[in-house]
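Quick one, T. Sequence first:
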Amino acid sequence: MSKIILASSSPRRKDILSRFDIPFEVKTSSIEEKIYAGDTPKQVAMTLAFEKAIEVSKECEAGDIVIAADTIVVKNHILGKPKNYDDAFCMLKKLQNNIHFVITGIAVIQAHTYNKFVSYDQTKVKMKELTDGLIKRYIDTGEVWDKAGAYAIQGKGSVLIEWIEGDYFNVVGLPIGKLQSILSTYFHVDLM
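Structure tokens:
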């Protein structure tokens, strides 16, 4: 019986997948996340997801299905995870009262086969106008760390968001509707 492997250390991705009646294991990828000059944000997200899936699939048994994802925030350029307080403040200042895009690359690989599928999902997000004081208070919650774009829509960062257009779960880090379609169509696996 093929196992489902989530190639991610993200507790958010694990939480999303846990909502479905499908057993899975978590194995963490240790790839160095490199961005190649000339790649579009969509290519970056898909490449990173694919690299994670490939690395983890090498440790799996033949036939196991490996799911990997990588989420990036784009406002004129890719905004990664904040390096420090000032970086988090600058990111949120840039995003506030503006529209940005959250892109999640998703890769599904059946270990030791040629059965592989890579895609992405994109959500448009409008952040509210924020005062410097609110930005500082949000950073002080500690929620900004290890989050692309320095916010978490599923947490306290939800109060910063005016609206979204697209899949909410994509912004959290795993576009579950897209994943269900990929698993069902290409791997004959259903989440429910």
